[in-house]
Amino acid sequence: MSRIRVAVVLGGRSTEHAISCVSAGSVLAALDRDRYDVVAVGITPEGRWVLVPDDPALLAVTGRELPAVKDGQAVALPGDPTAGGLVPLEDGPGVLGAVDVVFPVLHGPWGEDGTLQGLLEMADVPYVGSGVLASAAAMDKVVAKVLLRAAGLRVADAVIVLRGQEPDREAVAALGLPVFVKPARGGSSIGITRVDDLADLPAALQTARAADPKVLIEAAVPGREVECGVLEGAAGPRASVPAEVRVAGDRAFYDFEAKYLEDATELDVPADLPAEVTARLQEMALTAFRALDCEGLARVDFFVGPDGALTVNEVNTMPGFTPTSMYPLMWQASGLDYPALVDALVQAALQRGTGLR
Fold first, then answer.
1. What is the pLDDT of residues 138-180, one digit of tens each?
2. 50-80 pLDDT tens trace
């Protein structure tokens, strides 16, 4: 039997380009080549689609140097189901043609936010992860808060600042200090500033707006940072064991460098929580997954208060897949190792297909 052709799409135009590359390297290494014919497609920071070497080593972090998609044979995936898959835009080597399924290992706007998902729906190519609506809703933290609240879940209070607006100072002051100023549609803690003095608010807004003109000023939620993975299969979505992130040293919060460049975090997988809190957190993760109409997978992040109160921080429809990322670590602790997890996601995408569902 012919192997299933999987196109792993990586890089992208967002500020999370490098993390996408690292995640994709791990996915490429995990795909069983006896079952899958793999083609790696990179998207440069400028948005050019190119074939890249199917070599995970080229996508790893080296010291403090982050990987990036640079150049290669230009290709395109037309939004036309009769086009036959990947189309070359210039002469050169490369394996093109029909694609059975896409694994879009893209984080942030222009990839995780429904844009690529819409293209794949138009092209009638199955893909791993949530569809257009859930991808867009989860990416926009403002929209996600509305849907999560409507589902009865607790979320942090926030003030929204749109393009060209100035924040309502009284509303911000009512949140208390500290506050966290963050891009509304971003990830990997890029552009986030903890503000302990309102005099520092303008600089924090400028930092966030470098990533997104729509900004969220969010009240701090005391508690432990605990995450839970959701994986959808034939029997419906199920939740992993939760895991806790603890920031070591003098860092104010779980920022980009603590996540990816420094040995500044400690992970407890599974998290040391009372059984009742674990069960409640897993059920809330499933509720959040359904509230946003997610498919395939998601990582739901929580704050666990001293009294056991649970606050949903955010929902990630394409969580990090790096070797140290929480999503695969949680599933490994739940009995599903990395290669089996990747295989389950690809098979679920093939079974789900495209179109209205």
1. 999 999 999 999 999 999 999 999 999 999 999 999 999 999 9
2. 999 999 999 998 888 899 999 899 999 999 9
CATH architecture of structural domain 158-219: 2-Layer Sandwich (3.30)
Strands (E), the chain: 4-11, 36-43, 49-51, 75-76, 87-88, 101-104, 158-161, 179-183, 193-195, 215-219, 224-233, 236-239, 243-247, 265-268, 297-304, 310-316
Domain positions in the chain = 4-127, 137-155+223-352, 158-219
Single out the catalytic residue among 187, 314, 327, 338.
314
Contact status, residue 322 vs residue 22, Cβ threshold 8 Å = yes
User: Can 299 be counted among the known catalytic residues?
Assistant: yes
Cα 4–Cα 138–Cα 175 angle in degrees, nearest 5? 155
Q: Could you tell me which CATH class the domain 137-155+223-352 is placed in?
A: alpha beta
Q: What string of DSSP letters covers 56-71?
A: GGGGS-BTTBPP----
Q: Class for domain 4-127, per CATH?
A: alpha beta
Query: Catalytic: 313?
Result: no
**Residue 188 bears catalytic tag:** yes
User: What's the token pair of residue 328?
Assistant: 């695969």
Distance in angstroms (rounded) separating the CA atoms of residues 73 and 89? 8
Cβ pair 56, 338 in contact under 8 A: no
Cα separation, 191 vs 209, whole angstroms: 8
Q: Which of 260, 325, 327, 338 is catalytic?
A: 260
Entry pTM: 0.92
Which residues sit opposite 5 in a β-bridge?
37
> Is 260 marked active-site?
yes
Residue the block writes with tokens 């208060």: 305
